Amino acid sequence: MYIVLIVFVVHWYLSLFCQTFFLHRYSAHKMFIMSKPWERFFYLLTYLSQGSSYLSPRAYAILHRMHHAFSDTEKDPHSPHHTKNVFTMMWETKNIYNAVLSRKRAIESQFERNYPEWRFIEKLGDSWLSRSGWALLYTAFYILAYIYLDMHWAFFFLLPVHFLMGPIHGAIVNWSGHKYGYQNFDNDDKSKNSLIFDFLMMGELFQNNHHKKPNSINFGSRWYEVDPTYPVIKMLNKLKIIEIRKKG
Questions:
Q1: 120 in a domain, yes or no?
Q2: Mean of the per-residue pLDDT values for the chain?
Q3: Residues 176-198: tens digit of each pLDDT
Q4: How many angstroms separate the CA atoms of 136 and 156, rounded?
Q5: What residue intervals traverse the membrane (predicted)?
Q6: Does residue 38 lie in a domain region?
Q7: pTM metric for this prediction
Q8: Is residue 211 in some structural domain?
């Protein structure tokens, strides 16, 4: 049983790290730079960690830039204040994401630029063959754990989270981060900081801080606000895997 919990936690946080580090802070904001081989490494790691719920760095970057430009207005691709509930928000976001991904939606030039792209992984990650294969792999692991590792049947309810890991992370951040918590800054939107130690989403729930300082690598602003991804970025910078961009 403990092995199943460990696998779930590892999948949750590895996928979440790739989302906040590679998709959000690198692809969308270019807070740091990295060599092409390291970019390909993190691109592949994002595919492997998100699996059946793989999100395109290009489409993610475009939607996130739109979110900042139109935060909590009707043009925001994922505001909780223009949808009935979290499920309708996720569905509308999916539709916009797919239109951007398939290049069927016209994109303003300020959003359609300066993002990483690897066509092979893009096509692979978005294919139903890949998504189905990952889903079957997760399911096979739980079946084997149920048969051989004395796993309780209730753990099968974790499977949908594995299947939709990337969108679930996004839904938590976009819903909670613009609905619940406190504000350090008046950003002319409804962004909130939901936690003071964001262990759950690795800093992503400091939405109010992030909307005030969108290019700051530390999503925490007050001394008591802890962004767990920030020290990882600092370590990777010291190891020369990435280079934090100097503020101009």
A1: yes
A2: 96
A3: 999 999 999 999 999 999 999 99
A4: 13
A5: 6-26, 128-149, 155-175
A6: yes
A7: 0.95
A8: no
- Mean pLDDT, each 10-residue run in order, the chain (248 residues): 92 98 98 97 98 97 97 94 93 96 92 95 97 98 95 96 97 96 96 95 98 96 97 98 84
Give CA–CA dist 137/31, Å, rounded.
34
Q: Whole domain around residue 172: which residue ranges?
A: 1-183
In a domain, 78, yes or no: yes
Kindly report each contact of residues 39-43 with a partner whose C-beta sits within 8 Å and lies 24 or more positions away, as own/partner.
39/116, 40/118, 42/18, 43/116, 43/118, 43/121
Angle 223-68-189 from CA coordinates, rounded to 5° = 70
Which sign does the torsion angle of CA 9, 12, 15, 18 carry? Answer: negative
Tokens 């692979």 belong to residue = 124
Residue 177's closest CA among 68, 35, 39? 68
Report the domain count for the chain. 1
